[in-house]
Specification:
Elements: E1 3-8, E2 11-16, H1 27-49, E3 60-65, E4 76-79, H2 83-86, H3 92-111, E5 116-120, E6 123-125, H4 127-133, E7 137-141, E8 145-147, H5 162-169, H6 171-179, E9 183-185, H7 186-191, E10 197-199, H8 202-217, H9 221-232, H10 241-253, H11 257-267
Parallel strand pairs: 2-3, 3-5, 4-6, 5-7, 6-8, 7-10
Antiparallel strand pairs: 1-2, 8-9
Helix pairs in contact: 1-3, 3-10, 5-6
Length: about 270
């Protein structure tokens, strides 16, 4: 198990811990996280559907990954997709199935009736940045960054995240970030609205998380749920047509020559 679960003061925290792979996302962590989000969705269903229930079992979910530090380099939060695992997915259909799993995770997170916070402590690369986009609120430390490097590995956004990014920053900004494989510092990401609040360091991030959760806890849980539902618009649909379209397009790139060459180079072949 690579995701630890903590429950404290009505707040649920999931922390990815796989330092040997720089917390990279692949089918193994994907299956584990999908099981967790589906279980949480089921736990929250009575609150979502029954107006007589005033309090959900949790008031918020925090997504974390233990930052991996190597020497004097900035820490890694999530190093994109797990290339060692992904190299085993030899067909476009396999690649689509992998991406569809992560797309489902993101859509369930967005549809949850409680706020979801991503606590970023380092570089969120590729799929790591895409996972962060599925949260309602993104907090980060000053040494964090978002790097949209999907095209550099011969792919494109893989977790049905393209339209999510367009919604957050607009078509022109999203085009620039994705087609030019932009790496945003924490302050640059905040200026675009991709990071809501910035902490100077890990200690200040904990204080910030407590403050944000305090803001949520003082409000009506049902009001929060309804407002979140309004804000999410088409993203609360578990099988939106745009997501299927993105996955179909992503499948065309899996093991295409450019992607295959990158994997061979990474694997030393």
């Amino acid at each position: 198990m690579y995701i630890s679960v903590q429950k404290q003061d009505s707040v649920l925290t999931w922390t990815i811990r796989r330092p040997d792979r720089l917390n990279a996302l692949g089918p193994i962590i994907g299956a584990e996280l999908l099981e967790l989000v589906m279980q949480l969705e089921q736990e929250l269903e009575p609150f979502r559907t029954d107006p007589a229930i005033e309090e959900p079992p949790y008031r918020g979910l925090i997504l974390r990954a233990d930052p991996v530090r190597r020497g004097q380099n900035p820490p890694i939060w999530i190093a994109g997709g797990d290339l060692k695992e992904l190299a085993q997915l030899s067909s476009p259909a396999d690649g689509r199935a992998y991406a569809a799993e992560w797309a489902q995770i993101g859509l369930i997170l967005q549809g949850l009736p409680i706020p979801v916070i991503a606590a970023i402590q380092g570089a969120a690369i590729g799929g790591g940045a895409e996972l962060a986009l599925a949260a309602d609120v993104r907090l980060a430390t000053a040494e964090s960054s978002l790097h949209f490097k999907q095209l550099e590995v011969g792919l494109a956004t893989g977790y049905a995240s393209c339209q999510r990014l367009v919604t957050l920053v607009g078509q022109a900004r999203a085009t620039d970030l994705l087609l030019r494989c932009r790496r945003l510092s924490a302050s640059e990401a905040q200026s675009l609205g991709l990071i809501n609040d910035l902490a100077a360091d890990d200690t200040e991030l904990e204080t910030l998380l407590t403050s944000v959760m305090h803001d949520f806890k003082r409000l009506s849980p049902r009001s929060l749920m309804i407002q979140k539902h309004m804000l999410q618009g088409p993203f609360v649909d578990k099988k939106p047509q745009w997501a299927d379209r993105e996955l179909d397009l992503f499948q065309q790139l899996w093991m295409h020559p450019a992607h295959e060459r990158f994997l061979r180079k990474f694997m030393g072949n």
